[in-house]
Please model this.
Amino acid sequence: QKEVEQNSGPLSVPEGAIASLNCTYSDRGSQSFFWYRQYSGKSPELIMSIYSNGDKEDGRFTAQLNKASQYVSLLIRDSQPSDSATYLCAVKGNSNSGYALNFGKGTSLLVTP
Amino acid sequence: ETGVTQTPRHLVMGMTNKKSLKCEQHLGHNAMYWYKQSAKKPLELMFVYNFKEQTENNSVPSRFSPECPNSSHLFLHLHTLQPEDSALYLCASSPNSYEQYFGPGTRLTVT
Model:
């Protein structure tokens, strides 16, 4: 069973602070990692992808990957109330794993004004 | 129209009904997916099609029947569903086996 674990939250941060969302995965052979944002009643929206160890920055978002620790995180700088959503971590195995992404249950983020 | 579209957006059906969900992608992607999203559970992959060929079927009950006539269209035919099948059904597409882009979903209620 390939598992992706996330703290369900809610994670509450004040506006302007850094929100840190964490994800661990069980399949050591995993190669590709994604963060999706899902607003209540809406579908998931891809916001970040990361494939190599280290940090990847895109605007206010930074994804961090540590394959040795089987850990991937998402940092949101200068958090805004509009960032309040559920953030889903998704993990894909190696090239032989087909097209499936394994999703975590998501972490609910609440940014308070 | 761009992106991934799904119809209908909401569906209420009885356990003896037959209905179909439709997905269309305007992104030129070759792979399409059906997911089920239930409360408090991770997204569950149901079916994957790559260039119209089904590549994955995650032990989905036969009351769910997918159809992919071409790389842009995907259907999910529903019959004799159970109340526990009530969920958000999401279609996604991808240009490769990596990033997936989701449609708005169909909220299904089985009565």
Observations:
- The mean pLDDT of chain B is 92.
- Chain B is about 0% helix and 60% strand.
